[in-house]
Specification:
This protein has about 375 residues and is an alpha+beta fold. Helix content is about 35%, strand content about 20%. The strands form five sheets. Strands 12-13-14-15-16 form a five-stranded mixed β-sheet. Strands 1-10-11 form a three-stranded mixed β-sheet. Strands 2-4-3 form a three-stranded antiparallel β-sheet. Strand 10 (about 240-245) and strand 11 (about 250-255) form a beta hairpin.
């Protein structure tokens, strides 16, 4: 019989699986790096790693690499893992490649070009162009003169013809290119002698990684996160995934994690999560935030806030307000602010300011909008 599990157990399991409850850690033992840490916004991957106890400022230069991978978003990985990551994040099939490149697939299909062949063609062109660090716009302009019409689209805001965006992004790692960290606009550069691995180790498998860090989950959840067809995810579903029931819903978890899911109490920790922290990236948002009004506040179409995580629960949102060398943090709690909670949030805001190398000037608490 499937093991019955509560929502509270799931939230506690995810906090511990993602190591949000620890004070210190290393790159080697930081589990979120196996799935990739999204690096979007000023409080992206470095802050996500700092929240998990990694002394980011003390890391050896070049120990991390930033590449466009899942959903075309920039993700940070251990540099030593890049060959296996390059293999792990590739589309599972030609249908999968077509889904991941969105509207770019239609003109390619009309021209009789397979989606995977198109990614290879774009990658080959990118590899020939980017031999030294180059700004994305320059790379795009060069490629527009090299690629045939099915690869190109007219961009009204730029009043210019470009490659479709998703093939550009998803072909970059295929071409052996990484992003210079912290560059805006992005700067691409070659990764010396990068050759994708022949096999993907289990810890870097994206389906297993989702189950390990955001489980228990369904194939639909994983497909949504990877942006892959459900059929491809089901075909690669781990043989050691076991069924559990979360408040009446069937889900799956890796067998080795069942005891950790059912045998732990509530997680005790307060964190200011960045807007794209992995714990906010699960495709079961209703489990994390049941109130649809608050969910819209946390996940708006544009301009996401960060989340105040208290003992596994999202307890509000926060936004940074930077002015020169000073930082104010605006917090919108979703309930009463106890003395303990105020103290913990202020401590985390001071931690954020220190991480940014600025001085915390204030933490402003607004009234609960819910």
């Amino acid at each position: 019989m499937p093991v019955p599990v509560t929502r509270a157990q799931v939230l506690a399991f995810r906090v511990r699986a993602q190591q949000l409850d620890r004070d210190t850690g290393t790159l080697d033992d930081t589990t979120v790096l196996d799935l990739g840490v999204q690096d979007t916004g000023p409080d992206g991957a470095p802050w996500a790693l700092a929240l998990r106890g990694v002394a980011v400022g003390d890391l050896p230069p070049g120990s991390l690499a930033t590449v466009w991978t899942l959903r075309g978003a920039p993700h940070v990985y251990r540099r030593t893992d890049l060959p296996a990551v390059a293999a792990a994040v590739q589309p599972f099939s030609d249908e999968d490649a077509g889904k991941r490149i969105f509207d770019a697939s239609k003109p390619l299909r009309a021209a009789g070009i397979r989606n995977l062949d198109a990614l290879d063609a774009v990658a080959a062109a990118m590899r020939s162009v980017v031999t030294t660090p180059m700004v994305k716009g320059e790379v795009s302009g060069r490629l527009a003169t090299m690629m045939d019409e099915p690869y190109l689209r007219y961009c009204r805001p730029c009043a210019a013809t470009h490659l479709y965006e998703m093939p550009f992004r998803l072909a970059a790692l295929r071409a052996g290119l990484e992003l210079q960290p912290g560059t805006s606009p992005p700067v691409l550069q070659p990764v010396p002698e990068l050759v994708p691995a022949a096999d993907v180790p289990a810890r870097l498998d994206v389906i297993r990684g989702y189950l390990r860090l955001l489980g228990p989950a369904t194939p639909h959840h994983v497909a949504g996160y990877v942006d892959a067809p459900l059929r491809d995810v089901r075909a690669r579903w781990p043989a050691d995934a076991v069924e559990v029931v979360v408040d009446g819903e069937r889900r799956w978890l890796l067998a080795d994690d069942v005891d950790r899911l059912t045998g732990t109490g509530r997680a005790r920790t307060t964190r200011l999560l960045g807007p794209f922290d992995l714990s906010l990236q699960g495709r079961d948002r209703g489990l994390l935030v049941a109130d649809p009004v608050r969910a819209k506040t946390l996940w708006p179409p544009l301009g996401r806030p960060g989340a105040v995580l208290v003992d596994g629960e999202v307890a509000g949102t926060w936004r940074p307000r930077a002015a020169g060398s000073r930082l104010r943090v605006q917090v919108e709690p979703w309930g009463a602010v106890t003395a303990r909670l105020r103290r913990d949030i202020e401590e985390q805001a001071a931690r954020l300011a220190s991480h940014r190398g600025v001085r915390l000037s204030a933490v402003d608490f607004t009234e609960d909008a819910g």
